[in-house]
Amino acid sequence: MTMNLADSAPSMNNLLGSEADSQRTLYPYVTGTSVVGIKYKDGILLAAEMGGSYGSTLRYKTVERLKTVGKHSIIGASGEISDFQEIMRYLDELILYDNMWDDGNSFGPKEVHNYLTRVMYNRRNKFNPLWNSLVLGGVKNGQKYLGTVSMIGVHYEDKHVATGFGNHLARPILRDEWHENLTFEEGVKLLEKCMRVLLYRDRSAVNKLQIAKITEEGVTISPPYALKTFWDFSAFKNPTVGAEGSW
Amino acid sequence: MRKIAESMPPKGGFSFDLCKRNEMLVQKGLKQPSFLKTGTTIVGLVFQDGVILGADTRATEGPIVADKNCEKIHYMAPNIYCCGAGTAADTEAVTDMVSSQLKLHRYHTGRESRVVTALTLLKSHLFSYQGYVSAALVLGGVDVTGPHLHTIYPHGSTDTLPFATMGSGSLAAMAVFESKYHEGLTRDEGVKLVAEAICSGIFNDLGSGSNVDICVITKGKHEYLRNYMLPNPRTYVSEKGYSFAKKTEVLLTKITPLRELVEVIEGGDAMEE
């Protein structure tokens, strides 16, 4: 997703010239791939695997892309990892200031989502985006909330969301098989189904994922684990049946 | 020693002169139109008795739906069918051409065509055109050596797979296959899974839509189920009906038979040897 600046008039070139380029994000370097999130009976479930790719190298294999925000929300991020770390600094500061008010209120997922939207959109307007697609989920006072914000500030909330490749591979499955009142086991099974397809078909996926659960009681982020995969199709084992020497 | 003529007449075949021009233009800054994965979802899978192919029926011209109910599953041989994605003209032309070649080959050898024959003919044609013939195909059939399913890409590479999807809706369809496919499917399970994959493409991809076509090929038999499923019916029909405005007067209704201009000569000297 590169920005096409070749169309700017010559007079604008100084503003967007090569010197100024060192001050703003042009392309991502260390990236995380999709995050998938669903609402279920008791709250929200997010899944993300732990890979951090450096271009086409799978450089980092234990990157935690799911984090807690305050008491009521969890955030999952795909895209540039350093920008995600920056966003976590902003969010930690936001929650800290909220706590310092000590007024009995605490920011819920809606508030955090709105804050993130404003941050992302304003950075985009300055042509210096935080190169992330975020998923924000939480439960406050019994109300479940699941939303997403992209690097240009596009935001919406829905019953199931995904970023990156998850939009193409996981959303079709979720649209078909998600229903109200999934139990925790059913929700995890559904997420694992989506993550398995992503593992097969997304080149930047690694087989090490975490699932985060948030309910009224609190947040649990599972320890990393791997999915079972199946490679024993006879056409994989013997693709040239009937035509020896071909491929 | 004979002097070789400087400008030789073209010997036929593809002339790559314009490709050089295109490269020169790109170097000068022209933005080349990118490879269009034109709107389609096509799938194939191998089940216990043969192969099942599926396709949607929407043909697009940019943002417009040009044909709401086109046929994307092409006949190659009585036991081999081919789904095509990409430029419609290219898929039609290349499958027709190879279909004729297969028929001639059947006359020559006196045997049923094999899927690998169609595969080799298609891939060598596509490779020689270096990807300019924009046809991405899912080829499936059953021959003496068993059921086979292959994908063929516009540049000429091929894969042999237990299940395959191509086109802009391929990711949506592949998500269904990757989560639900297993070996040893029965015919009904296979048809249901193919229909589900195509529907996933139809409803989740903007380039695919309308109806589901299915073709089931087994040993000695093929069933072409045109419009197997119609999940996008036209539900609203105006109750008022359609009528002319009151001011329109019908003056005269008359049917005039067209005059026959050509006289048919019975057994005449039409074509003498």
UniProtKB/TrEMBL annotation, chain A:
One of its GO terms (biological process) is proteolysis involved in protein catabolic process. The keyword Cytoplasm applies. Pfam families: Proteasome. One of its GO terms (cellular component) is proteasome core complex, beta-subunit complex. It is found in: Cytoplasm; Nucleus. SUPFAM superfamilies: N-terminal nucleophile aminohydrolases (Ntn hydrolases). One of its GO terms (molecular function) is hydrolase activity. Keywords: Cytoplasm, Hydrolase, Nucleus, Proteasome. Belongs to the peptidase T1B family. Non-catalytic component of the proteasome. This is Proteasome subunit beta.
From TrEMBL, chain B:
Keywords: Cytoplasm, Hydrolase, Nucleus, Protease, Proteasome, Threonine protease. GO terms for molecular function: threonine-type endopeptidase activity. One of its GO terms (cellular component) is cytoplasm. It catalyses: Cleavage of peptide bonds with very broad specificity. InterPro entries: Ntn_hydrolases_N, Pept_T1A_subB, Proteasome_bsu_CS, Proteasome_sua/b, Proteasome_suB-type. SUPFAM superfamilies: N-terminal nucleophile aminohydrolases (Ntn hydrolases). It is found in: Cytoplasm; Nucleus. PROSITE patterns: PROTEASOME_BETA_1, PROTEASOME_BETA_2. The active site is at T40 (nucleophile). Pfam families: Proteasome (PF00227). One of its GO terms (biological process) is proteolysis involved in protein catabolic process. Component of the 20S core complex of the 26S proteasome. The 26S proteasome is composed of a core protease (CP), known as the 20S proteasome, capped at one or both ends by the 19S regulatory particle (RP/PA700). The 20S proteasome core is composed of 28 subunits that are arranged in four stacked rings, resulting in a barrel-shaped structure. The two end rings are each formed by seven alpha subunits, and the two central rings are each formed by seven beta subunits. The catalytic chamber with the active sites is on the inside of the barrel. Belongs to the peptidase T1B family. The proteasome is a multicatalytic proteinase complex which is characterized by its ability to cleave peptides with Arg, Phe, Tyr, Leu, and Glu adjacent to the leaving group at neutral or slightly basic pH. The proteasome has an ATP-dependent proteolytic activity. This is Proteasome subunit beta.
